[in-house]
């Protein structure tokens, strides 16, 4: 399974949540980000030995990495991050 294009609305919501203050009311943005993270995690788990994230997927995943810190999830997450860094960027932006 190959990486997916992330809807720009999801990346906007991620940036809003990432740059928010605890008192900010961003329920819609948080819901959008949570749904996107769940969908990404399902894709990673479905092809846990080969799925390689693109830059936007990695940004989304990295924001939520604390969700995947125990047991098999931790191992799958670590390997997915390793594949991201081992896979050449298509746009040359990553070193």
Q: What features would you describe in this structure?
A:
The protein has 95 residues and is mostly helical. The protein has one domain (8-86). Helices cover 59% and strands 0% of the residues. It has 4 helices and no strands. The chain starts with 7 loop residues before the first helix and ends in a 9-residue tail after the last helix.
Q: What would you say about this model in short?
A:
The protein is mainly α. It is built from four helices and no strands.
Radius of gyration, in angstroms, nearest whole number: 14 Å
What is the distance, rounded to the nearest whole angstrom, between the alpha carbons of the first and last residues? Answer: 24 Å
Overall SS class? mainly alpha
What profile does the largest beta sheet have?
none
